[in-house]
Design a protein that fits this description.
Length: 202
């Protein structure tokens, strides 16, 4: 049976509020469902699997498992979101340390766009638009997102916000001269996910 760091991490947070027997049942149900989801979608491209296997399918699986144990929808979404918030909280200090090195923060916005295009690729199902941006602002719009599309297909679009909000946690406070300016995402009901980083002049 396939195991997942996301499932185990989310269930660890659930354990803060629920008894051990409930958490054991949720974990077992989630792992079984995760394995089913992998089987149902075995023909996916490697680019898409980088997202579905690590995040989307385990997210759906643990969410369904929590709901089956009568955890309210809002709280179940919160547990999933909290997993990503805590995960990002551990990673951000490392990023901030690198960006604080001389000259790095000036190069980061352009590098961010290049890395995003590679990680969130068109081969994985992301569709980009490139609006004209103000001076010293870098970014793009995503107008089609496999996180949203997959969660809609499996009847749980409400969990997409947990994925979306991890971007804010990751990029929202990296450097005093890097301003994260995203105002909306598809998961939050907007037409697109607008990724924006502005390089503040010294």
């Amino acid at each position: 049976m396939k195991t997942s760091a996301l499932i185990n991490g989310t269930c660890k947070i659930v354990r803060e509020d629920y008894d051990e027997q409930t958490v054991v049942r949720i974990t077992a149900k989630a792992e079984r469902r995760f394995t089913e989801l992998l089987g149902e979608n075995a023909g996916e491209s490697r680019a898409l699997q980088a997202h579905t296997v690590k995040r989307i399918y385990p997210g759906i699986a643990v969410y369904e498992a929590m709901r089956s144990e009568n955890i309210p929808e809002e709280k179940a979404v919160w547990y999933l979101r909290e997993y990503f918030q805590r995960f990002c909280a551990k990673a951000v200090p490392v990023m901030k340390g690198v960006i604080a090195l001389p000259g790095v923060h000036q190069k980061f916005p352009e590098l961010f766009v290049k890395i995003a295009q590679k990680s969130f690729s068109e081969e994985a199902g992301f569709v980009y638009e490139w609006p004209e941006l103000e001076e010293d602002t870098y970014g793009f719009d995503i107008v089609k997102c496999p996180y949203y599309d997959t969660c809609v297909r499996y009847g749980c679009p409400e969990i997409v916000t947990a994925f979306c909000d991890s971007d804010d946690a990751s990029y929202g406070n990296l450097h005093r001269n890097l301003i994260w300016k995203r105002t909306g995402t598809i998961g939050h009901g907007c037409d697109c996910c607008n990724f924006r980083i502005q390089l503040k002049k010294e």
